[in-house]
Structure formats: C-alpha cells, structure tokens
Amino acid sequence: MTVTIVEETRPITCRAAITGGVDTHADTHVAAALDPVGGLLGVAEFPATAAGYARLLGWLGGFGTVCLVGIEGTGSYGAGLARHVTAAGVRVVEGRPGGPAGPAASGQV
Fold first, then answer.
1. Domain for residue 55, yes or no?
2. Is a pLDDT exceeding 50 seen at residue 26?
C-alpha cells in the first residue's frame, strides 16, 4: 500500500471560524478566543467601556472570523458588550455563570 501526503493549501482570504467567550465584571471583561475545535488561542482583558468593547471584538477578529460570542451576564455587566457584538452582526449567546456556587456544584447540570 502506498500513502501519499498532500498538504492543504488555503488562500490567505480563508479565515478560521472563531468563538469568543467573555467573563464580565463591572470594570473589566476577560475574553477568550477559541479555534473551531475549542482550542484556546488567547485570553485578554478589556475595559468595560464602548472603546473596550470595540477593542475586544477587534482582538477576537484578529484570530479569524468571529462567528459566535458567549457572554456571561447579558442582562447585567455584559449588556453593553452584548449590544455592541450583536450590532456588529455576530451571534451572541448567554453564558451561564460558573464557579463553586453554580449549578454544577450541586449536580444540577
């Protein structure tokens, strides 16, 4: 049996689908960028301001095409960011808060 290895050549215009996840706080938001299979590409912190929202979305976009952003607290600390990301045409989903006091700790997942 003969095996031939063929390298994939993709044009520069082909960009990976990126998923973002954001842990929101009153003054700052911490974002993580994930590749199409869930691999961590990077983590960064941004101010919870309009300028910070733009920087966060731009940072995610530096890794590829942002297809989805999970935001914790879209009804509170993440509300402004959720509006900004949605206005940019990116799908937003509500991220469930984690931590030891969350549903996972009591086995309710």
1. yes
2. yes
DSSP 8-state symbol, 105: G
Does 65 reside within a domain?
yes
Q: Which tens digit of pLDDT belongs to each residue from 59-107?
A: 999 999 999 999 998 889 999 999 999 999 999 999 776 655 545 554 5
- The number of distinct structural domains making up the chain is 1
Q: Would residue 44 count as lying in a domain?
A: yes
What pTM value is reported for the model? 0.76
Looking at residue 101, its pLDDT comes to 53
Beta strand 28-34 with 40-47 is antiparallel
- For residue 67, what are the CA distances in angstroms to 34, 35, 93, 97, 99? 11, 11, 11, 21, 26
* Average pLDDT in the chain: 84
Contact 69, 59 (CB under 8 A): no
Q: For residue 91, what are the domain limits?
A: 40-95
Tell me, yes or no, whether 31 lies in a domain. no
Strands 28-34, 17-24: parallel, antiparallel or unpaired by DSSP?
A: antiparallel
